[in-house]
Amino acid sequence: MKAIVIKEYGDISNLQEVELEMPVLAEDEVLVENYATSINPIDWKARLGYLKEMYPWKFPVVLGWDVAGVIVQVGNKVTNFKIGDKVFARPDIYADGSRGSYAEYVAVKEDKLALKPDEISFEDAAAVPLAGLTAFQVIVDRLRVKAGDKVLVQGGAGGVGLFAIQIAKHLGAYVATTASKQNHELLKSLGADEVIDYHETKIGDVLNNYDAVFDTVNAIDDGLAILQEKGRLVTIAGKPNEEQKASSKEVSDWWLQPNGKQLKELGNLIVEGKVKVVIDSLYPLTEKGVREAHQRSQEGHARGKLVIKVK
Ligand SMILES: NC(=O)c1ccc[n+]([C@@H]2O[C@H](COP(=O)([O-])OP(=O)(O)OC[C@H]3O[C@@H](n4cnc5c(N)ncnc54)[C@H](OP(=O)(O)O)[C@@H]3O)[C@@H](O)[C@H]2O)c1
């Protein structure tokens, strides 16, 4: 099968097209013919070797952890999915580094899968799992956002931020967010009550007494400063230090846990029109396409998701 791999850590020129053996399925896995995948910042961070200690992979490494496609093979112990099902998932990150989604076929454990609703295209579906599940888990489970809460989503125009704003609005929160000017209209159209241009205004000058902060940009002190005394902050972009953890406020970091059931819930919100998928740009699964997508992600101003069309 065709795949884009890295054979060592480094810049985008290390992303190379190769032919790989098809993945061999475990009993609890399905093989998905990949129609679309997406790029997340973890991809270029991994390419640069920032995750070396967490994942001591062997080369060549297949990056990419979003998949939308059709099941073509099922393991013996798979009970809830069958050949021909259209699915989407954030697959596990395997210890050997060979199982990413920049490939024509991806093996996925059954419990990470959700059926793709027919109303959602493969490209939109590929944009959802990693970023959408992160937003869902932080807003719903970790920050426990409820109707009437005042919530700040730092980095509202990013892949995660866009989902987070819409999920928090769906729960009935008042949502403030930060973004560059060119993204304000989009964020308001998706429900944000207040959009702050972080280039010009410090959030501490305009917001206070917030119940929850979702930090996607590693600005923990800024977030803590606007929280009410028992407010909650979750960061996905940094690590709270001892002083921050000692605050009277609830401060923690979060690492996404792939979860097929929650992905199904998110799919339902999209079908119901409560959450919209925003795609920044589409690329082909070629060396050039994936390199360009990495470049765009690494520049830090993607507006929504970068999607790779595989089939
Ligand atoms: N822990 C986890 O499980 C987990 C999961 C997913 C992501 N992450 C991490 O979370 C971060 C965000 O991920 P993502 O997928 O949303 O990234 P992304 O899509 O690449 O984010 C790009 C957005 O960030 C905004 N931005 C950049 N600097 C900003 C700042 N100082 N203030 C406000 N907005 C800023 C840009 O907005 P403008 O163009 O408007 O300036 C742009 O729209 C990354 O560091 C990623 O690695 C962690």
TrEMBL record:
Transmembrane segments: none annotated. It holds the Pfam family ADH_zinc_N_2. GO terms for molecular function: oxidoreductase activity; zinc ion binding. It comes from the Bacteria. Residues 10-308 form the Enoyl reductase (ER) domain. InterPro entries: ADH-like_N, Chloroplast_QOR, ER, GroES-like_sf, NAD(P)-bd_dom_sf, Quin_OxRdtase/zeta-crystal_CS. This is NADPH quinone reductase related Zn-dependent oxidoreductase. It comes from Liquorilactobacillus hordei DSM 19519.
